[in-house]
Amino acid sequence: MQVRIHSSSDTDFYLHIRSRPIIEHSQQLRFAPMAPATLLALQQAGGAVDASAGDGTSSSEDDTWRQVEDFGWVKATQSPNWSVVAPEARQPLDIAMQQQGGAQTTAFCLQDM
Q: For residue 81, which of 39, 1, 4, 24 has the smallest C-alpha distance?
């Protein structure tokens, strides 16, 4: 399973995935790991959560969410089109999705088929 983001801007993505996210023709995107509490809530609600999510805890090794590939940025330096959401700026998903104005928040919880 793969996350491919096209023609997007000013959006926060909270991810729990095994493959690297890919962006194209996008700007001002921010990425963060899906919070363990959100993973656990999705599991309990019967959502399609990757089996590696276990009890909703995450390992420091689970950092594919931050290995974003920008197909529009071929330089060896960091792409200016995305950044990481600072830990102090991360919001619980239920709150973030209710925001009016500002960045949108999208969560992906994918299961390999």
A: 24
Helix, strand, coil proportions of the chain in percent (round to 5)? Answer: 20, 30, 50
Rg (CA), the chain: 14
10 Å CB burial of residue 46 (0-12, 13-18, 19+) is exposed
Alpha helix ranges (H) inside the chain: 36-44, 93-96
Are 30 and 10 contacting, i.e. CB atoms less than 8 angstroms apart? Answer: no
For the chain, give the number of residues: 113
User: Is-contact 102 12, C-beta < 8 A?
Assistant: no
- pTM score of the predicted model: 0.73
pLDDT at 41 over 70: yes
